[in-house]
Design brief:
Chain lengths: 427, 427
């Protein structure tokens, strides 16, 4: 007998169907047993008019007659005839997966990750994450970007900064890629438009609700741009397309978080960082500390301002100061203390960083000298510019931060199957 | 003026069009200059009836009248009017990118990777690789698999064996994931069908044409299987779908390698390893060494046999011996010295490894003891089985090996943008 998926059960009305799934809940009245069975498409109630030996969590294959039942969730019930346990629980579940909300604190949630993931509300996060990955690929491919995979084991730390994990690599030392930045720039000289979905490793000792030490970056880089605004425009279109797909294909999972619709402006507002600082001071009487470009509190208020002033969840902050941006960032010709680098905020949290890059070899060398970065190990990158690369720019986006903000999760770690932080390497 | 992509130039016949691209070749007759311009969709010849200062490799934006010309490649030529160099070559190219074949040895090719990638025949490899990634996603999603991303930084070596890279992880030591094996199995208990496209790290000191130390794995795992044949059947369908998409969308890139069509049997032949060994001895008088399951020479002959006997480029070898398969592989109940593990060969090279897995907690523990594997650090994995996981299996496939075999490349390193081997960490 062929299996019927639970969300297709209406096609078998009046017939005997086979379903496969996990026992999600049991009501045992002795000689009548109600089982809720869950497969990856939904749940259905099955009634057995005889005693059966079964436990919550068992995986079963069962057969029974499909009956219409207005009272049942989904509109159908199965009159159970045969049941076979194909994999059996041998230890009692530590929490009740049938509750509407697990209500675990973050540490308990993550310590019991392999089991907590069986809860529908937790699963919904990763159903949406799957759709997010797909939507990014779709949006980029529609815009003629091709997917590349760049190495994560590097011979040299690539972007300055000390936040690299070190790897013992045979007789040498390698570092783990902090981003595909330099490689994707090189590839603009080859394919003009490239994107990558890949692992990113950051040895930052942060312990916050928005940082992890390993995540999936959504990168892109494009050539023949006029200026950074070609990049923000493309990123705007990409986000809009992604959210359209997520809203359409993720409806039932968004509902678990009481979200009906997703809005992305056709033109996300742009504000220069220097102006934004004045606005935040004037509107919210908050002074961004002098030793940073913008702090989390500042980003939060910027998000609030974008919502109040433009009714937008998104905001591009542009023209970050030269001292806070990496050596490859294009300098603003009208004000060399500023770059053509930007951040994209979503509900007051940075979800993407990008900008125009320097494409002239000589400018790159000059800027590296100013930043006191040695070219050691970066020759392959620098030399490529001698053979010309068109004017270009791009972005790096944090996939899990989008989900965190979308669902208003309290920590980014909820949006990662098996998150890594300073203390957590397991599960 | 809006840019026209070169493969769309026919839409502008008789009009003035703007194109952007790299100068691919120059014929300079003094007061008449022929330029071949290349963008990411193709090449076109442009004629300027005046002297211009330009070098091969420069990136330009140019305008001119589009004229039909039967003699021209693509059927059109541009009568150049305006040209602007937006990024200029400052060092002469070390080799001629306009030649039909670069003909570089592997080391020179890889040392000059950032430039060699600008050659159309090298580019074709990565155009096909992009289509391959997309085709895998498409095939898996069509079969109800959802995409997951599992951690690459692990607290414990997961599968036995010593081939792990070690990472200094704050105060601890981490290892780099050698596969998503244990995590994807856990996720079968959650989503039933999952796949992952992700980085895989192998600290193997091999120096062959088919090994690298970092690659992109195409993994999948599925629940509620009857036996390993459900897995080989699904993998067969997936490969068939992938090759259909690659043939259709990659036509012009396959042509660079003189490939017209791709064939995948509806039913890839299956042979038990023990039988195959006898056949190889009988047919080719070759004895597979005693200290291995099968050696590369044996795989090559197996591939030859599959071609001769079944006219198939693909072959499933099944029932690998217990001693050569990891602890999670299901044991053949009819012969405990064999497992229900298989390999998939493509033109005599292993491109995928898979099998049915053990889903009973007690069997897992017993098998680990027999294999002398300590459970330290694997508790999260083992405990999950106490809460039941359905019968399941899956595969891990090497994305770059498929491309190597597809195009008959001499080394897998040609199929990786920036490959990593024992000695190579750069570029």
């Amino acid at each position: 007998m062929e299996r019927t998926l639970i969300n297709q059960i209406s096609t078998q009305e009046g017939k005997t169907a086979q379903i496969k799934g996990r026992v999600f809940n049991i009501r045992n009245l002795g000689n009548i047993v109600f089982l809720v069975i869950q497969d990856y498409t939904g749940t259905i109630q099955t009634v057995f008019e005889k005693g059966i030996e079964i436990k919550i969590g068992d995986f079963v294959v069962l057969e029974g007659k499909v009956k219409k039942d207005e009272r049942a969730k989904g509109g159908y019930e199965i009159q159970g005839e045969k049941i076979e346990i194909v994999s059996s629980v041998i230890e009692e579940l530590p929490f009740d997966l049938a509750k509407n909300d697990l209500n675990l604190n973050l540490v308990t949630l993550l310590d019991n990750r392999t089991l907590a993931l069986r809860h529908p509300k937790v699963q919904a996060i990763f159903r949406l994450y799957d759709i997010l990955l797909k939507s990014y690929e779709t949006a980029l491919r529609e815009n003629n970007f091709i997917e590349i995979k760049t190495p994560k084991l590097l011979g040299a730390a690539t972007e300055g900064g000390a936040n690299f994990f070190k790897v013992k690599y045979f007789e040498k030392e390698a570092t783990l890629a902090q981003s595909p930045q330099l490689y994707k720039q090189i590839m603009v000289g080859v394919f003009e438009r490239v994107f990558e979905i890949g692992s990113v490793f950051r040895a930052e000792p942060h312990f916050t609700t928005r940082h992890v030490n390993e995540y999936i970056g959504l990168d892109a880089e494009m050539g023949f741009i006029k200026d950074y605004k070609d990049v923000t425009k493309t990123l705007n279109q990409v986000i809009k397309k992604m959210f359209e797909i997520i809203e359409k294909e993720g409806k039932e999972y968004l509902k678990e978080y009481c979200i009906d619709s997703l809005q992305v402006p056709d033109e996300i507002p742009h504000i220069k960082l220097s102006e934004l600082k004045k606005i935040i001071k004037e509107e919210y009487n908050y002074e961004i500390p002098k030793d940073t470009d913008i702090d989390p509190k500042g980003e939060e208020l910027a998000g609030q301002y974008a919502k109040e002033k433009f009714n937008s969840d998104f905001l591009f902050i542009t023209h970050y100061p030269w001292e806070y941006r990496p050596f490859y960032t294009m300098i603003n010709s009208e004000n060399p203390e500023e770059t053509l680098g930007f951040d994209l905020l979503y509900k007051g949290l940075e979800i993407a960083t990008g900008g125009q890059r320097i494409h002239s070899y000589n400018e790159l060398i000059t800027n590296m000298k100013k930043k006191k970065i040695k070219p050691n190990g970066l020759e392959f990158y620098l030399n490529t510019f001698k053979y010309a690369i068109p004017p270009h720019g791009g972005w790096g986006m944090g996939s899990e931060r989008i989900i965190k903000q979308l669902l208003n999760l309290s920590s980014i770690k909820e949006a990662i199957l098996f998150p890594r932080d300073v203390k957590r390497l397991c599960p």
